[in-house]
Amino acid sequence: MLAGAVFGMLPGASLAAADAALLPRNLSPWGMFESADIVVKAVMIGLAFASLVTWTVWLAKTVEIRRKTTLARQRIGLLERDTQLAEVEQASRDGSDAVAQIVQSASREAALSGGMFDDGFKERIALRLERVEAAMSRQIARGTGVLATIGATAPFVGLFGTVWGIMNAFIGISEAHTTNLAVVAPGIAEALLATALGLVAAIPAVVIYNHLTRSIAAYRALLGDASVMVMLLVSREGDRSLFRLARAAE
What we know:
The protein is an all-alpha fold. The protein has helices at residues 2-9, 11-22, 29-34, 38-79, 85-91, 98-112, 119-140, 145-176, 181-249. It contains nine helices and no strands. The protein is rod-shaped and about 90 Å long. This is TonB-system energizer ExbB.
């Protein structure tokens, strides 16, 4: 009892006890969020939403690219056989995928040209295929731009929350006229949490964006292969038609 009285008379011990009493009881991430300033809360909610968008885009685009890549390889396998453009168009008539659109566009131009296999016909086919490739490339890349935006801006949004939290800490010091830990700790904790959330949102967004960019580039290469196969098919049909006309003239 006497030791407790002596301990209470010490200035350092009393200040430490006061700091311990004033410190917030809950410094968990959720506790820091609940006690944060409204601006810091808005930053944290925005970063959490950005992280949710990142993983949603990753899941949706991964499934889409994998499905379209598998279908494109199947169509290219059909084009590699010794077949005719009309047969390939018939097999892909009900398809809405990129390679089916390429085949249908080439078949449409062949129908409009009336079976005239000349250099102008090949140029028109090439122009049509370029347009389809560009349209399908834009379609498959839709939604990935938001990942680049999140990856570029999330660290700065988190930094804004950090600056705002530290500013609140200094305001608390000024109003309380003290520099004890109980005044400084909550604002610093909120600032560090905002920084962490900014990195949690930005790092996966950058990694996923680079991964999807490589996958989309591989898919575009498949579309280029499909266009080349269609041009080869058209060229073979033209050569066969000219060969038949030459044999008939003999």
